[in-house]
């Protein structure tokens, strides 16, 4: 099962927008991520709907941050992209007849629910600014090179 990379990609885009581009078009983001501009607009729409970015059409238009990265948490981005499933494991059947499978499924559901609650709490405690600070620290420790920043996916 392929991983859902929308959250990682949107966090990546938000930091680039904050650090390197005040306004960026869907086409520019698409080139950076190695995807299609339509896919970018779909992903960015959730961030816009939540008030984290703005968009303007036409010449000179594009996407811009509507607030500082310190005001956006990982939980905010997760919710803005539609809260994709966190785990790819789960029950084999919706209503199993087997008592063993019922016991397994009940414990898995409980445990996954607990893990999800912990993860959501951590997502809520980490701001995108925290990730950007980690980027700045990594950048400061890296020897100066022309390829320091992303040029593709």
Characterise the protein shown here:
There is one protein chain. By secondary structure, the protein is mainly α. It has a single domain, classed as Arc Repressor Mutant, subunit A, CATH 1.10.10. The protein is built from six helices and two strands. The protein has helices at residues 6-20, 26-33, 37-49, 74-80, 99-125, 128-141; strands at residues 53-56, 62-65. It has a two-stranded antiparallel ribbon. Helix 1 (6-20) crosses helix 6 (128-141), helix 2 (26-33) crosses helix 3 (37-49) and helix 4 (74-80) packs across helix 5. The relative contact order is 0.16.
CATH architecture: Orthogonal Bundle
Please tally the helical runs, counting DSSP H or I stretches of 4 or more residues: 6
Gap from first CA to last CA: 20 Å
Strand content: 5-15%
Instruction: Please provide the ordered H/E string of secondary-structure elements.
Output: HHHEEHHH
Structural class: mainly alpha
State the CATH superfamily name: Winged helix-like DNA-binding domain superfamily/Winged helix DNA-binding domain
Unreliable sequence segments: none
Number of strands: 2
Q: Specify Rg, calculated over alpha carbons.
A: 19 Å
How would a crystallographer describe the biggest sheet?
Answer: 2 strands, antiparallel
Task: Output the strand order for the largest sheet.
Answer: 1-2
Please identify the top-level CATH class: Mainly Alpha
Count of the separate structural domains: 1
GO cellular component, one term: cytosol
Pfam families: Rrf2
Protein name: Rrf2 family transcriptional regulator
GO molecular function: DNA-binding transcription factor activity
């Amino acid at each position: 099962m392929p991983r859902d990379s929308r959250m990682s990609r949107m966090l990546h885009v938000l930091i680039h927008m904050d650090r390197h581009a005040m306004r960026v078009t869907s086409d520019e983001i698409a080139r950076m991520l190695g995807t299609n501009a339509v896919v970018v607009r779909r992903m960015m729409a959730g961030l816009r709907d939540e008030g984290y970015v703005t968009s303007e059409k036409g010449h000179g238009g594009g996407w811009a941050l509507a607030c500082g990265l310190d005001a956006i948490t990982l939980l905010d981005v997760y919710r803005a992209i539609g809260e994709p499933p966190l785990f790819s494991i789960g029950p084999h059947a919706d209503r199993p007849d087997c008592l063993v499978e019922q016991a397994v499924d009940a414990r898995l559901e409980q445990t996954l629910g607990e893990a999800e609650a912990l993860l959501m709490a951590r997502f809520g405690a980490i701001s995108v600014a925290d990730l950007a600070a980690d980027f700045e620290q990594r950048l400061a420790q890296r020897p100066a090179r022309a390829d320091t920043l992303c040029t593709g996916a």
